[in-house]
Protein 1
Amino acid sequence: MSDGREQRLAEVFVELADTLVEDFDVIDFLDTLTIRCVELLAVDAAGVTLADSHGRLRSAAASMERARLLELFELQTDSGPCVDAYRSGVPVVNANLRVNEKRWPRFSTAAREAGFASVHALPLRLRGQVIGALNLFCINASDLSEQDQRVGQALADVATIGILQHRGTQQAENVTQQLQTALNSRLIIEQAKGILAERGDLTMDDAFEAIRAHARRTHQRLSDLARAITDHSSQTDQILTNVAEPKP
Amino acid sequence: MVTMAMEACLATMRNEYRASQGGLSSLASSTVAKVLGVTGVGALVVLGATERLPTPTWGDDSVGRRLADLQFTTGEGPAIDAIEAGVAVFAPDLADLSESRWPVFTTEAVALHVGAVFALPLQLGAIQIGALVLHRDAAGPLCTSALGDAVAFADAATSMLVSAAAGALEMDDDLLGQQMVVFQATGMISVQLDVDLAEALIRLRAHAYGSDQMTSKVAEDVVARRLRFDDQR
């Protein structure tokens, strides 16, 4: 590993550890983590899926908000690399989509249509339990180096720690409940995106960027801002003003 | 994960709904309580309630009914907090002296020999629909499998309540699935019609049911700007 990369790796782990302060925002944390995955590993897109009460995987965060990427997670209800990693607890690496056409027919077709050639899925492990998976997508069908696989699993483990560290405002300290709370936070963000997209005639991607940028600018938690938007408080005008006139 | 007994309960719920649109009332709460291993279970619902007061709508055991009424009248208790905060609120040992979050509720509940209360929010993102309340004579935590079942039941009850409010003859299992587009469309429709998110979701569900489409399909049309809800009045 080059010195520059090692340096960057250290910085990312420090950044993620720094995020895990009291009262941090789990969705913001997971979004940052997926973006860092793309930066650090030889992959082009990343996402985190978490299991709901039925053991179905649902999307919690993605390195890009592109609708097609979200669809790829949604397609994996009963078959796909994430499901395999989740059910077995074993990483799925270097899965060429052409070779795995039969293994995951619907998923392989959709992922190839979206421009990806290979995928990896790393389980989010908690002692004997698996709570979800980190999904990595590559445009080229190149293999992930052993080094990248180790770093990827370390990032998946950090994601697990983050999710379990996160507490709601009350004390239901249980994994099932924590996953449920995290997934519900994601839904609030989606509702807020819809409101802003309609108000400002924006795409969902742009609406999300606007919400995230405004949260950073005003030092608010992403989820708190999203909830304020869904309450129809006055903040949408301010957010949209900033979209119209980007500040340097 | 959901136990077989709870899966059977959920299947009954779907069939009953199809047969009568009776909402939760068609399902005996004692059956659900037995599966969850608690003394009783009930629900308080905000969706469609006047002045957005959580109203006791389901549960046939007398103690559970009393606990629900108590929260409705005093405005305090685990269900009220669960709805407010959108997270589960557990009181595994009500007799514990440190349990002072809800003085009136706790005193009454202990007098009724209730040892533990667990409230789970019924919600879809920012939409608060109500809370599911479990109570048990014996104090102590809820076991993991019962919690998994309770969360699954809460999800199904949420779908049922929204479908019933939309006048749909089928419960929509898809509603709580992982279709982000449904939640995005709900936000857009709330702006188009100048209504809250709950109303927007009910309108979306009703439109899907009325046009014999999946809710997610209609939602896709909304997000792709092929369909507007303010055009059709």
Protein 2
Amino acid sequence: MPELTINSGVELRNSRLEIHRFRQRLAIASGVVLFIFVLLFARFFYLQVIQHKHYNTRAEANRISIVPIAPSRGIIVDRNGVPLANNYSAYTLEIVPGRIDDIEALIDDLATVIEITPRDRRRFKRLVEESRGNASLAIRTRVSEEEIAIFAANRYRFPDVEINARLFRQYPQAEMFSHVVGHIGRINQSEVGQLEAEGRYANYRGTEYMGKTGLEQSYETNLHGTTGVEEVEVDSGSRAVRTLTRSAAVSGNNLVLKLDAKLQEAAYRAFGEHRGALVAIDPANGGVLAFVSKPGFDPNLFVDGIDPASWKDLNDSIDRPMVNRALAGTYPPGSTIKPYMALAALTLGKRRPEQGINDPGYFRLGDHTFRDQKVGGHGVVDMYKSIVESCDTYYYQLANDLGIDNISNFLRVFGFGSHTGIDINGESAGILPSQEWKMRRFKQKWYAGETISVGIGQGYNAFTPLQLAQAIAAIASDGVVYRPHIVDYIENSVTRERTTVKSQPLRTLDLKPEHLGVVKQALVGVNREGTGARVFAGAQYVSAGKTGTAQVIAIKSNEKYVESRVAERHRDHSLFVAYAPVDDPKIALAVVVENAGFGARAAAPIARQVLDYYLLGKQPAALNPPQGPR
Amino acid sequence: MTPKIKRAARVLTAHVDAPLLSATLLLMALGLVVIFSGSNQSLPRVASQAFNMLVALGVMYAFANIPPHYLMRIALPLYVLGVLLLVGVALFGDVLHGARRWLYVGVTRIQPSELMKIALPLMLAWYFEHHATTLSTRNYLIATVLLIIPVALIVRQPDLGTAVLISAAGCFTLFLAGMSWRIIVGLATAGLCAIPLVWPMLHDYQRQRILTLFDPAQDPLGSGYHTIQSTIAIGSGGIFGKGWLQGTQTRLDFIPERTTDFIFAVYSEEFGLMGNLLLLVLFLLVIARGAVIAGTAPTPFTRLLAGAITLTFATYAFVNLGMTSGVLPVVGVPLPLISYGGTSLVTICLGLGVLMSIQTHKKLVQS
């Protein structure tokens, strides 16, 4: 302080210099601040004016989520309204696997709260492998109300597990209709590709399942319905806040079948423990009344994804329950081919009805002997007797006289050897042999000897039970061949409008009534006094039928078939075709019972029970199953 | 009676600077409006901030009435106390959200770095006033060390945002005190060279934040998410905004920290470019008034203090607006006078109170 006066001049100068420098610096700093604020404004201008559209779009994309609304699938009912496939609502616990680091740990954790069986785990694993994109997959389905309550109490522990109410497909009749109604299953990658190619994928945005087999598959476009769309405002956690717009889903259309569920049940039960197939057709229009393939499987297993163990069981079973025997199984027709052979002979003028042959019990061609089933033969046999007693020798000779191509051409128009065009997929065409066929198939010439076995329904020819039924129905309807169809009409879910599946005849065969009359009379004779007589004794209606036995393995010409010596799976198939009542046929059917021996023994009783039920309302005798192995 | 009341009023408001107070009140009112929207229309939240504002305005009024030479007296003790507390934090501090920022002192927890925001410019202004007559390069270097000590302690906590703001306040003081351009360039070069040394010392999340700035899309769900969503909010606001309470980014929870650090995204989405212009103008008003006060302040201490407070305020605003609009890294700096939260509000208002004090005690010093 004492120096203050001495240095005051210097200090004043310093002070002025200091103020000047300070103001200079302050001006620079202020300029910089102003410049930065201008830059900030430029940034805001860029974002809010130049890029506004871009950011506005992104804000909208943040906010709006398009949620597809899956339509409820159309239901399937029989001709009397009995449900064969319907929907029910149930809770599921779902996980999006892509969002979880350790799925196993999560499932283990979840299992402490709610029951998760090893089957659920296997099924879930399979779902994960097959799933598309970031799908939400069910770890548990059909969760009970009680379980939901328990889970809800522990909800906080499982932020990644969602409770959903979903519609499930249910097949109340289980295996009885498995091969005709079919089942749905989770949409897989190749089906996604196919839907995309057909331009239908957009309609499947909210759908996880589609028809895989049977009617579920072939009427998929009718059953599925139209997917609705909901525009939902979502928050940052993807939780829906409110609905902006909504266009409702339109339910799929319902299928009403020609099929009679009770008849189907009667037929299924009539098989007892036997494997085989039965197709019953309304001869007046081709409507399928019953369509049995036994054994069946439980289609409900597929609804929420089948577990690998059940899948393996179904595929590895020696009974092959997954094969639709009525549609894709091909069997030699055996003696059921004889009525058509007789008609061919009459039509082509090779035989007259009353013309008799002498049957010594065999037919010889060159040095080859073809045996009749009846040792010593049937004696003198005319056409009527040949069918009623099922004489082989008569048809060995006839086949030899007709030649393979005549046989083939005649049988073809009945539908043998070609697709019937039934309204489910997976049909086999079967084999209708001809010279041309053998050349194409084996690059070999046809031998005359091969024609002989074809005459009694052995040899190369093999037909589906469906074809056998279609053909016998054509006889019943005096030569009108219909396309078999299972669906009667499609009912629009909204308007209730019905679209009938056409039952127009495919063709009318050029047969003379008197020729048909001869054969039909003989078929009546079969059930009255022939091979079917014992089974049809006491029937309160007049029926026409034909037994058949199809060899599974070839028996050498000098050997005799002895059932007990042959392995069960190598035993003959038992066949029967029939229609009734003969003056106004209401039902025509074909039955194949695998490895069950003579036609009259296993197949005919089944036919009798089905006809009794359909025509008289008699329930099959459940306590008196047909005799047979197994 | 009336003249008496008038005189009393004049005495009571003698140290209040009207322009500064008006701009402050306008900004605070804007803040309440935006907090209401950003909190999904929570009135308790608004009420709580209004209470914070009353406290902050009380602090502002109190400091406006403290003459600058009292502040000069407490500058050194306050600085020493602040550094000691920071050392205390480093040794015994409570860890919260992975950072050691809080110190428990008897009844409550305090955040000493907040105190340093005012203590450091005070200290530096005092130091330069003390050596005003004999300033040499040595003084500037000592001042630099005084700056680095607290900043280093805060970086260690770690609290990058506060460290940036405090070192900015210190640097402004040094700059305004007339540090020669040679030293400035030298120190800046040294600072740039130090980046490779400092980089490994940073925490992962700090590094991530800086990297994300250059490419937010690189990590859209992680640290880039904040920037992306706030930028979308601002951009989608357009020229006039979506309207109050109408911001979808706000309402649907897409903007993070909607009432605190990212409150500007809410404001900008709902009020658009025009609203932003208003906000920038209000901030510039505060800054311009501060600059005028600094430019006309009578002593080196008051000049430097006023200048540093003003520039720090500008930095607060710039850093927050920059990070929200995606041009600066996310460093957790609130928007002054707008963001929800009592601490930063009190600190800012304390500074503004000091500005008022410097302005209103001028005549006393001059006379």
